[in-house]
Design a protein that fits this description.
The protein has twelve helices and 19 strands. It is globular. The protein is of the alpha/beta class and 424 residues long. Helix 7 packs parallel to helix 8 and helix 11 runs parallel beside helix 12. Strands 15-16-17-19-18 form a five-stranded mixed barrel. A four-stranded parallel β-sheet has the order 1-2-3-4, with helices on both faces. A three-stranded parallel β-sheet has the order 5-8-11, with helices on one face. The two termini are 35 Å apart. It has three domains: 113 residues, Methylthiotransferase, N-terminal domain (Rossmann fold, 3-Layer(aba) Sandwich), CATH 3.40.50.12160; 227 residues, pyruvate-formate lyase- activating enzyme, CATH 3.80.30; 56 residues, OB fold (Dihydrolipoamide Acetyltransferase, E2P), CATH 2.40.50. It binds S-adenosyl-L-homocysteine and iron/sulfur cluster (SF4). The site of iron/sulfur cluster has 10 residues, from helix 5. Iron/sulfur cluster (SF4) binds next to helix 5.
Length: 424
């Protein structure tokens, strides 16, 4: 999500005559796109902002802008300006498209702060986007979130969920495919709850699957919410031509008590039931997840429930997090778990998930697949490709003419998260 927002900011600047430079010392404008989902992300950004003081002292004309959801926490913009008085512009994640207008106004004003929420009337369409890749792209379908999971700051900083007009989504995807993009990831905090008039997520997927400007393309989407991923959507994926057999379905915890305290609105039995439906309907589906440890009130028994469910669910990959207290969320008022216990649990979780992921990876060895070559790693001289189920394959090959192509490959070796393959 944030990567794509950075692409929009870069697109805006480059269409207004600015060019990208390779290091901060050469820049006339530095824009920080921030994230506040966990404390670690926020601390990292603040320390980077601190480093800019010396640059600003050397170059009085340097413009520094802080954008993104970190600025939208209550009182945050003021506290940033108080601590880092050399910042010129602070914009919320719904206001970054006004950046150039604000840069031009800086000669008249000393500091600019704009933090507004988004509604259906002010979604900005048809803006320039500086896409990082020529081969794959992100497309927003929803903004914001209505779910209020008790640990999460997103609904407070990004506001209520808004769905984009499906015609605009189809136009954007058609344009991208006509320009050679072959893999598109639809983005939203909870894509399954997309709803624009009578078009729901299932209908939207069918509309996208029917686009026929080019023959070969892949569609992915994230993030799904277990309470909203229904059987119709799973059937549509199974019957589609272009929608990948790849679902990111955050679990968060395997304990019913913790899921309830998190306000996730599903229990472990329902979660496992969705996994079963996916496995029954979509052969070889790559299922990935997000899991958190150390949520308030999590006992050893609750944690063992999480270890147990990951064994049952057999995730291809899991993003694992230590619960981070976010001011203003209900969970931040609950009794907190000691940091040592959180660390111990995350280590155990990662260890177990790594064994599961490695066993899944081993099953690919000696088989052949179609892979999409998405980038080239210059340092290691390898092509990075992805299978339809989302599994990454590294290919020791420096033939960059394969970039953006679907190729047949044979898997030679397996690591935990990536495979090693050969073009055949
Ligand atoms: N909308 C998506 C993604 C939200 S953020 C969803 O519902 O899954 C991505 C992940 O960050 C979440 O799935 C969750 O595992 C993690 N996360 C969110 N808030 C967190 C917090 N306060 N502490 C630790 N991890 C958190
Ligand atoms: Fe946060 Fe829950 Fe919304 Fe995801 S669904 S963004 S975790 S509130």
């Amino acid at each position: 999500m944030n990567v794509h927002e950075s692409e929009k900011i870069a697109g805006l600047l480059s269409s207004n005559g600015y060019t990208k430079v390779s290091n901060m010392q050469m820049a006339d404008i530095i824009v920080f796109n921030t994230c506040c989902i966990r404390d670690t992300a926020e601390k990292k950004i603040l320390s980077k902002i601190g480093e800019l003081k010396a640059l600003k002292r050397k170059n009085k004309n340097l413009i520094i802008a802080i954008v993104g959801c970190m600025t939208q926490q209550e009182g945050k913009a003021t506290s940033i300006l108080n601590t880092y008085n050399y910042i010129d512009i602070i914009l919320g994640s719904n206001n970054h498209l006004d950046l150039v207008k604000h840069i031009n106004e800086l000669s008249k004003k000393k500091k600019i702060v704009q933090i507004e929420s988004l509604d259906n009337n002010n979604i900005i369409e048809d803006f320039p986007i500086y896409r990082e890749s020529k081969y794959k792209a992100f497309v927003n379908i929803t903004y914001g979130c209505n779910n209020f999971c008790t640990y999460c700051i997103v609904p407070y900083v990004r506001g209520p969920e808004i769905s984009r007009n499906p015609q605009k989504i189809i136009e954007e995807i058609t344009g991208l495919l006509s320009n050679g993009i072959k893999e598109i990831t639809l983005l939203g905090q909870n894509v399954n709850s997309y709803k624009f008039e009578d078009i729901d997520f299932n209908k939207l997927l069918i509309m996208i699957d029917n686009i026929n400007v080019v023959k070969e393309f892949w569609i992915r989407f994230m993030t799904s919410h277990p309470k909203d991923l229904d059987e119709n959507i799973i059937t549509t994926i199974a019957n589609s031509k272009h929608i990948c057999n790849n679902i990111h379905l955050p679990l968060q915890s395997g304990s019913n008590k913790i899921l309830n305290l998190m306000n996730r609105k599903y229990n472990r039995e329902q979660y496992l039931n969705i996994i079963k439906i996916i496995r029954d309907k979509i052969p070889h589906c790559g299922i990935t997840t997000d899991i958190m440890v150390g949520f308030p009130y999590e006992t050893e028994e609750d944690f063992l429930d999480t270890l147990d469910i990951i064994e049952k669910a057999q995730f291809m990959n899991a993003f694992t997090f230590i619960y981070s207290q976010r001011k203003g969320t209900p969970a931040s008022e609950m009794p907190q778990i000691a940091p040592e216990i959180k660390k111990e649990r995350i280590m155990k979780l990662i260890k177990k998930q790594n064994i599961i992921a490695k066993n899944i990876s081993n099953e690919y060895v000696n088989n052949t697949y179609t892979a999409f070559v998405e980038s080239y790693d210059h340092k290691n001289k390898i092509l990075i490709a992805r299978l339809q189920d989302g599994k990454q394959v590294n290919i020791k090959n420096n033939d960059i003419s394969l970039l953006g192509c679907f190729v047949k490959i044979k898997i030679k070796n397996a690591g935990i998260s990536a495979l090693l393959g050969e073009v055949i």
